[in-house]
Amino acid sequence: MPKPLADPLKPDVLVIGGGNAALTAALSAREGGASVTILEAAPKPYRGGNSRHTRNFRCMHRGPLGVLSGAYHADEYYDDLLKVTKNNTDPALAQLAINASEESYAWMEAHGVRFQSALSGTLSLSRTNAFFLGGGKALMNAYYARAEDADIAIHYDAHVDHIALEEGRIARVVATIENAEHVFTPGAVVVASGGFQADTDWLAQAWGPAARNFLIRGTPYNRGVPLRDLLDQGVQSVGDPTQCHAVAIDGRAPKFDGGIVTRLDCVPFSVVVNRNAERFYDEGEDVWPKRYAIWGRLVAAQPDQVAYAIIDSQSLDLFMPSVFPPIQADTIEGLGQQLGLHGGKLRGTVEAFNAACTEGDFHPTELDGLATTDLSPQKTNWARPIVQPPFYGYSLRPGVTFTYLGLKVDETARVSGPDGRMENLWAAGEIMAGSILGQGYLAGFGMTIGTVFGRIAGREAAAYVR
Ligand SMILES: Cc1cc2nc3c(=O)[nH]c(=O)nc-3n(C[C@H](O)[C@H](O)[C@H](O)COP(=O)(O)OP(=O)(O)OC[C@H]3O[C@@H](n4cnc5c(N)ncnc54)[C@H](O)[C@@H]3O)c2cc1C
Questions:
Q1: Phi and psi at residue 6, to the nearest 5°
Q2: Were 188 and a residue from 175, 211, 271, 424 both cysteine, which residue would form a disulfide, CB within 3.0 to 4.6 Å?
Q3: In tens digits, what is the pLDDT along the chain, a chain of 466 residues?
Q4: Does domain 13-198+404-465 have CATH number 3.50.50.60?
């Protein structure tokens, strides 16, 4: 491979972002013979965006593959995607991501990623999703080590402020690196700077003021600055600003970067109430892997964007242990008071729920049909009376994972500009995932999209400068 160009402000390929999509693009561009520079907004200890929080990627395989058992054929994978997106996807791009996921497994291994089998209690994904040994942090560290070995120039604390578009091509990229402005004039640009969820003002434009109470599960650096800048210059967009992946997380989680451990999986075994100690949705509608992603929106629609999950001692060991211990009390009324709710009202809600429960067998790991009668809203599975002290409570808040509004790309990951294909701009990862994820989410697909389109974008950008 050639050495990087002498002038560091004129790389063949400039990659904006420092997560999975950016690093796969950078490594692929370098392997395509280009000199490459990465601009990562985060300081080095926080490099890797949301990707460092991940655990697995969803992988098509026609037979056993590494840690993946059985087969997961492309048509089953695509059907799964159509179900969650309600057909709101770009079929060509979706099938490209699915088909290329199989060979991505070997590519990832060749670039230092190690896999492990799924552990029990992880949303039953052992056939469909390959788990990263050491999680996304280890994956990112492996890619950064490869990038350093390959003489890719990496700048941390490097915020891209402007991507200047002139006559269908990117003429220059303006970035602030450690408080000084630098102007890059690369041959090609890959933008992989994630969604805009960390900009709560932008979220509030789409969601209203309630968005200011949302917690952001991942990096504070994904503020959508490159996305907004390109859209303002007429680059074509996909997706809806109100669509995002959001789950219910522990209300005590930090504003940013709480990661996977703040997710709470107790809802199916709970009575969930709002600030007024009233139930508002069927907690047992379906198995948790199929429902966890709707609870962020449900909580977002409640007063003050907060809810409370109440369980008793029978259910404490039925879900992944929580990182923050639950609030505990010997009576429901006392629990309510500790949670800041009206204790008497909470007792009334739980008593009404208990009275509506029916006789039957309780099976925590499958739909058991143990439903309430004459209660609104109904609980249609796992409706077991909450009677055995001590009682436990968790506060819940919406935790945004990533937003779906993004850039329109074609099958070569090239961005569509105001007047057709951009000459020298490619996009990968969350910033273009809205084409494939019009709504809903399939666990592990974010890393698949980033890996597949990152590799394509890097390869295409290198071919262009050659
Ligand atoms: C808690 C959590 C768990 C998740 N678990 C999974 C999982 O197990 N499997 C899965 O498939 N998906 C998972 N996801 C989703 C997944 O993280 C994303 O789909 C994926 O990481 C997107 O990769 P990306 O490279 O596009 O974005 P990111 O990894 O977020 O990278 C974006 C990068 O752009 C940089 N950046 C932003 N703005 C600028 C700027 N102006 N200038 C320079 N750099 C900038 C950021 O610092 C960051 O490095 C999870 C997300 C979270 C938050």
A1: -60, -40
A2: 424
A3: 444 444 789 999 999 999 999 999 999 999 999 999 999 999 999 999 999 999 999 999 999 999 998 999 999 999 999 998 899 999 999 999 999 999 999 999 999 999 998 876 545 688 999 999 999 999 999 999 999 999 999 999 999 999 999 999 999 999 999 889 999 999 999 999 999 999 999 999 988 898 999 999 999 999 999 999 999 999 999 998 888 888 999 999 999 999 999 999 999 999 999 999 999 999 999 988 778 888 998 999 999 999 999 999 999 999 988 899 999 999 999 999 999 999 999 999 999 999 999 999 999 989 999 999 999 999 999 999 999 999 999 999 999 999 999 999 999 999 999 999 999 999 999 999 999 998 888 889 999 999 999 999 999 999 999 9
A4: yes
Report the alpha-carbon distance of residue 270 to residue 392 in Å, rounded. Answer: 10
Protein residue with its CA nearest to atom 35 in ligand 1: 17
Q: Where are the domains of the chain?
A: 13-198+404-465, 248-399
Within 6 Å (CB) of ligand 1, which residues are found? 16-22, 39-42, 49-51, 53-57, 158-160, 192-194, 217-219, 221-222, 225-226, 259-260, 401-402, 429-430, 444-447, 450
Closest ligand 1 atom number to CA of residue 263: 1
Which ligand 1 atom lies nearest to the CA of residue 258? 1
Which residue is associated with the tokens 């915020």? 159
Q: How many CB atoms lie within 10 A of CB 167?
A: 8
In CATH terms, the fold of domain 248-399 is Flavocytochrome C3; Chain A, domain 1 (3.90.700)
Residue the block writes with tokens 């809600």: 349
Q: What is the whole-number distance in angstroms between the Cα of residue 119 and the centre of ligand 1?
A: 23
Q: State which amino acid sits at residue 276.
A: N
